[in-house]
Specification:
The chain has 163 residues and is α+β, with helices and mostly antiparallel strands. The chain has a single domain, classed as Nucleoside Triphosphate Pyrophosphohydrolase (Alpha-Beta Complex). The protein has 3 helices and 7 strands; from the N terminus they run αββββαβββα. Strands 1, 2, 3, 4, 5, 6 and 7 form a 7-stranded mixed β-sheet that branches. Strand 1 and strand 2 form a beta hairpin.
Length: 163
Amino acid sequence: MTILYILLNDLSIQIQNKIGIGENMKIFDNNSIDVVCSIIFGDTPDKVLVGKRSDTKLWELPGGTVEEGETLDEAIKRELKEELDVEVGSCNFVGTEVKYIGNKTINLYIFATRLYGNEGTPKVMNEHDEIRWITIDEIDHLEWIESDYVLGMLRHMMKGISE
């Protein structure tokens, strides 16, 4: 698991340096919505945490909208605290997806983190009806909000870790 963390951290730093997403970067304009989500690994590397939204009844990776003045790092940590009542030490940036809906641009920033026991036990809060740890084999058996791109990234990361 230590090797996974080192690889994720190294990849995160390389991507952040290449595209300019640092801890102090603040992004916002009138035509875009910035959203963060996290692939959360637990004590075993073969499972990730997902939540079933209360409003749509679809499954998602935890996260939400970046508030004005927040960095991406601050946003993902706040969202994980609000949605799951956990405080994570670090989240590694692993990718982004851009969607166009009407005249709005949705910028989705995808992070990965590992939830350690001292960071809290995830709880069902206001956003979700249910949370669960899933394996790679369960991905295709759930109805998702996430795009094929995000689910592909999830599969790729889980496959790489389990090998």
